[in-house]
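User: ok so my PI wants both of these folded by tonight, can you help

Assistant: No problem, let's get them done. Here's the first:
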Amino acid sequence: MIDALTLDQLRAFVSVVEAGSFRGSAKRLSRVQSAVSYSVGNLETQLGVTLFDRSGHRPKLTPQGLSLLAHARSILLKVDAMRARARELGEGVELELSIVIDSLYPMPWIMEALHAIRRSYVGVSIRLEVLPLGGPPAAIQEGRVTLGILAGEDLTDSRIELEAMHSHSFVAVAARTHPLAAAAEDLDTLEAVVLAEHVQIVLSDPTQITEGRDFGVLSPTTWRVNNQETKYAMIRAGHGWGRLPHWVVDKNLASGELVRLPVVALGLGGQTDVQFYLARRIDRPLGPVARAFREAILANHASGT
């Protein structure tokens, strides 16, 4: 009966295929050859099919055996994953890692760190939020996430523990076709009186944390967007000017599609360096997966990848 199938039989079947012989399978499984043959024979009886043609020097899969091989491998893979997950749970491994990332942070570094998590913790679920301004600190304060990456420390409070990582540069830019691009060629600095005539593209805060406050807003007329991708697209399209992370626009600047604006109020040459921090609530210690993510992010910073 199929209900009597065992994992031992399936492992013997797959092992014979991979080793190329019953003797090789026995060596792999640290068993005697007769035991492997017995397991495969019982499996064939219960399935009602012949898995191997044994008439030659080496066993050869029958068409039925070839068809069932993928199913056997899939079952064993799921069982092994279940065992690994149970072992992780016994060691206190989290069921889910929830992370919030400031939208200004380089996403390639996040993807690299997540690769490290997948290699070590296959069964862990990941929940990733990417938010601007007060979104990341609010998510940490409210306990919605385990770990966050924040841009600057202005929006945090005493409940959040910070660990400085690395700073990234931000530059004021406009499309090559924008009037401010031509002005930048004629002027060493762009002052507020010049900027006042043009729309500034600004990120809006999804929370109330920055209510009544603006960061780097110099133009009286603003277009506000809720994500970095839209801000980038609007500036590229020539709808206005704004600050963007250098890692986002370096290729556009090199090609001449975007032009740096020497906005004196935003730093030398219109460039500002922003410090990023790993952040968590002080009353929420990190589990093994969160610690592994932290280590992977810090390793990325150390190597400069």
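One down. Here's the second:
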Amino acid sequence: MTASLKDTRILITGAGSGIGRATSLKLHELGAHVFLTDINLDGVQETEKRCASQESPASTSSAKLNVADKAAVEAYVESITKDGAKIDHVFNCAGVNPTSYKLEETTDEYWDKLMSVNLRGVYNVTRATIPHMASPGGSYVNVSSINGVHAYANQAIYCATKWGLIGFSKSMALELGPRGIRTNVVAPGYIDTPTNAGIVKGGEYVERMAKGNSLGRLGQPEEVADVVAFLMSNDARYMNGSVLEIDGGLKG
């Protein structure tokens, strides 16, 4: 795995915390040159600082990026592909976590926010990077959720974005596969990240999440990062259009 990622160039969105940060560190540790982006500049700069402290010769860069902003995404991609430089892999991790609302209490603003980041953001990044992807050998890994394969009451909008992302990704796999560019999806369950709504609430919510899977604990961001690194590696060279649930054995 290490050899197949060494000296690759990987664009990561949502790199400022949680799964995005853990994956950035993992990929950089494996020798990949990482291009770190997040809407939170302080967060993504901290991720870059942590990458730079690793014993890895690979380069790092960080930038503030709102994936919902088409023009900003296109400008950023152009800036990292000057002189014909290729992108080997893209990790579409930027997203907005859910807030529980009954449908009749959901606002248009909430709908627009989740759709613009969770779906349109991936669309913007994908469309902008396709012309610059290594072909063959390139890959995308997109972040869905257990909410993308299991429906939950009071989270209809979030579920819609994450189910939609899986459909979008499977279509990507069919369209880009003939070029030798793979697309796969990770669907994390209850992961211990700062933006997880249950973690924010704490107490009984954390306990409920931990008991919600057969391993009886929350997942760690690093455990998702390991799967992402695998999907980008040559070890997963025949995986295309796959959805990997990382949920500790979800109950029910």
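The mean pLDDT is 94. The two ends are 34 Å apart (CA to CA). Good luck tonight!
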